[in-house]
Amino acid sequence: HALAAEVPIIVAINKMDLPGASSEKVKNELAKLDLMVEDWGGDILSAEISAVTGEGVDHLLEQISLQAEIMELTANPSVPANGVVVEALLDKFRGATATLLVLEGTLNLGDSFTAGIIPGRVRSMENALGEKLKEVGPSTPVVITGLSAVPQAGDLFDVVSSDVEARKIARKRQSEVEVEEIAPKKMTLEDFFALVEGDQKKELLLILKADVDGSVEAVRGIIEGMGNEEVSVRILNAAVGAISESDILLASASNAVVIGFNVKMDNRAKKAAEKEGVDVKTYDIIYELKADIRAALEGLLEPEIVEEKIGTVEILQIIRIPRVGNIAGSLVREGAIRRGSKIEIVRAGEVIGTGIVEGLKRFKDDVKEVIAGFECGVEIGGFKDYQDEDTLIIYDVKKVVRRLEE
Questions:
Q1: How does the average pLDDT of the chain come out, rounded?
Q2: What is the pTM of this model?
Q3: In whole angstroms, what is the distance from residue 317 CA to residue 387 CA?
Q4: Which of 364, 360, 366 is CA-nearest to residue 394?
Q5: What is the predicted pLDDT for the residue at 394?
Q6: How far apart are CA 170 and CA 310, in angstroms?
Q7: What is the 3-state secondary structure (H, E, C) of the chain?
Q8: What does each C-alpha distance from 400 to 200, 304, 306, 334, 403 come to in angstroms?
Q9: Which of 144, 279, 349, 354 has the maximal Cβ count within 10 Å?
Q10: For the segment 99-119, what is each residue's pLDDT rounded down to a tens digit?
Q11: Nearest one of 398, 362, 394, 358 to 379, comparing CA atoms
């Protein structure tokens, strides 16, 4: 992404405090990716550091400052702050919390702002060490509280003049989003094929809740790519926060499954799930979540039908029994014949029909199986035009569970 955007790259080679650490090996691997460091005659800055001892960190910071000067990167600290939401979550003690990166201006305690469609007022600010701050300048990350809801990672934030202005802007943006969501979409070729296929493609409908927006996007990215031309995953709603009653009601109305990652259900949601019969799954390990979704999708796949030849039977004589019909008096030449097996009727070397072993007798007794060398009476369903000396090829039909490709 950095190369495609033509953005300068600085490489920090970490763990240089470990015995046998070799930066040359890393530089060689970088060269294979067309990233040639300055030591090797390229234009990529690099620094050998240790996060444990702090070795080389000052040199890395100097290189960052040098690169910023070369690029003439500047920011005005005297204007209202603006920047981007790096991460956001719903803290059970502090409420909606967001990590912001101030790109320009100065953010102060008490400032009114909008973050995407969410209005707020800065109630508290702290840095990565948990230290309380009163103001934050450009190019600084900060954790804030005071949002009315949880914004999305990547949303832009802007300081505005008042709470009233913040709510006004947020409402306008929300209206624009709603209009965009309900606007009719143009029919695509893929849409047309989906309509033609009708209900042949099966969908696993999910409602996803997670602890932070980054988790939502990570889980979404993993599970939306699963499936094939027969089965797929569709996420009806994905949001940050605990599983709520409204999530359960949406799942009930749409026949969906609720998936939670690092979150719990509140009491009202538990009661609603029991009442509505909604399946709720919660996880704290993403690989377990992925495995369960894969298993659910594989359960939607039509099983593969496998036919295995298990025997050959020769019809010796057609026996007519009143109120029963014709029974094929037969001899099992190879393998076995079982009740419920599939049959191919062969005459003069050609298959003339197929049927099912509906009944199987040894003398007057009903049996489930007869093996090679024994005679039996076979009641054939689905085909009646069999004759003496016809050959029956017996197949065992199995349904094999199919697997999705990795």
A1: 86
A2: 0.53
A3: 8
A4: 360
A5: 93
A6: 71
A7: CCCCCCCCCEEEECCCCCCCCCHHHHHHHHHHCCCCEHHHCCCEEEEECCCCCCCCHHHHHHHHHHHHHHCCCCCCCCCECEEEEEEEEEECCCEEEEEEEEEECEEECCCEEEECCEEEEEEEEECCCCCECCEECCCEEEEEEEECCCCCCCCEEEEECCHHHHHHHHHHHHHHHHHHHHCCCCCCHHHHHHHHHCCCCEEEEEEEEECEHHHHHHHHHHHCCCECCCEEEEEEEEEECCECHHHHHHHHHHCCEEEEECCCECHHHHHHHHHHCCCEEEECCHHHHHHHHHHHHHHHCCCEEEEEEEEEEEEEEEEEECCCEEEEEEEEEEEEEECCCEEEEEECCEEEEEEEEEEEEECCEECCEEECCCEEEEEEECCCCCCCCCEEEEEEEEEECCCCCC
A8: 19, 5, 7, 25, 10
A9: 144
A10: 999 999 999 999 999 999 999
A11: 358
Q: What local confidence, expressed as pLDDT, does residue 406 receive?
A: 60
Distance CA 393, CA 314 (A): 9
Whose tokens are 């920090």? That residue is 12
Residue range 372-385: mean pLDDT, rounded: 90
Residue 196: pLDDT above 50? no
pLDDT at res. 334: 94
